[in-house]
Structures are given as structure tokens and as C-alpha cells.
Amino acid sequence: MTSRAAPAPVGTVTRGTTNPNRLRRMDRWIAAAHGAELRRAGDAVAVDLGYGAAHWTPAELLQRLRTVAPRTRVVGVEIDPARVAAARPYEREGLAFRHGGFEIPLPERPSLIRAANVLRQYEEAEVADVWARLCARLAPASANSRGGLLVEGTCDEIGRRHVWVALGAEGPRTVTFATRLGSLDHPSDLAERLPKALIHRNVPGEPVHAFLRDFDHAWAAAAPYASYGVRQRWIRAVRDLSADWPVTDGVTRWRQGEVTVRWGALAPRG
Q: pTM of the entire structure?
């Protein structure tokens, strides 16, 4: 009997650019927003999909998730076999590396899939199918759980500016904008880090363009608060923005340089 060859991974090789601490803002948000679900899952599995040319981001994700869910395990999944081979010497308890792509080659269904800077090289028309494929691999909801979470987004090379979409099995839930406040001139500076589903929609007539326009206006109106520090200016701007946009978080997260908005308010038209 001949052995059957394993199916080829789904997806294409990315540039693999990575840096230590690049994804810290996303990691901290995941720990805050999804930590309770990970704890309820017990031996939860989190996937760092497309972690790139070094092992840093899966290792950092494990460290940050274990502060809120100590039994969580992280698997780094990469479509480039050479990157997997280079990362395997760093495996340890709770951290493993696997060759694969969007099919997520694990026997279990993960409680978290993080895909940072993966879809940027894809076409906008491909995003919905990739989202659907990944969401179908998430742990299912139950009476006590909303199920697994997919977090997909884009950041700059050192993680100062980041925008991501959070999705459950039912589809997109929220969009989060996160920044190092000292690096910001205007909130619309974050437009260059919009995920692939939104970046080409930052044009007049699209909701995300209107959101960033209103955010800039709120930022300008909050200028007097800059005398108390850029953090207070951001908090005031987000508070004013929330009068017209469905902001889902509160001051605790705003203080981190974040704001999260319901997906439906920013979803592309058509």
C-alpha cells in the first residue's frame, strides 16, 4: 500500500517580515477581550498564522496569553517549510510550530487564530473566502462560550500603529484601531494600516472614510486637552466620537491608545 501525500497548504508565502514586540498591541487586546473565553476553554489552542521568518511573535503570544489563561498552548503555522524548520529549535512546553496555511493543519479547532500582516499581499476580493475558511476552523460556540475568535489585521514594522478585525464563526464583529499615541499627528494616520478588507475603501462615500474624517474632527476639537497630555486628548476625542459611532469599549482601553467599533458601522458598501 502506498502512502497518500499530505495535501498542499492553502495560501502563498508572505515576505515574512517580523520584529520582536511588533504585535504587542494586538496581543494585549486579545488577552483583555478574549481571555475569559480562553480560560473557559481549559486547554485552549491559539494559532499564530503566518508568523514569518522568526519565532518571536508566537513566543510572545504565548507569554501574554498565559497571563490571563495559564493553560493556553500556541502553535505557529507557516506556509514556508524553511521558516518552520528554523523555528522548531525554539519549541518548548506550550509552544509548537507546524507547516501549513489557511487550512490550519491541527486536529483540534483552535480557540484563537491570529493572522497579522498575512492578507496584505492578497486581493480584496479574496478576503471574504479566507475569513470564511478560517472562521470555519474555530472552536464552536456552546452554552457557556461564544466560541473561537479570528483576529486579522495589519501593523507597521515596529508595531506603533495597528488596525484589526475580530471575527467569530458568524463573521466580523468589530474593528480596533490601536496606536502609540506619541507617534500620532491625526487619527487618520492609521488609514495606511487598515486591513485588506478596508484599506481600498478609504474613499468618499465609504463608511470607514467617514469614520476617520469624524475622528480627525473630534481630535481637532479635543486640542485643548493636549495640555493634560496626548492620552487625555485621545480619550476626549473618542468620547465625542462615540456619540455618532458604535464604539464598543471604554476608558480602560482608550487609555491604551485603542478604540473598537462595531464592524457593521464600517463595513464596505455593496
A: 0.95
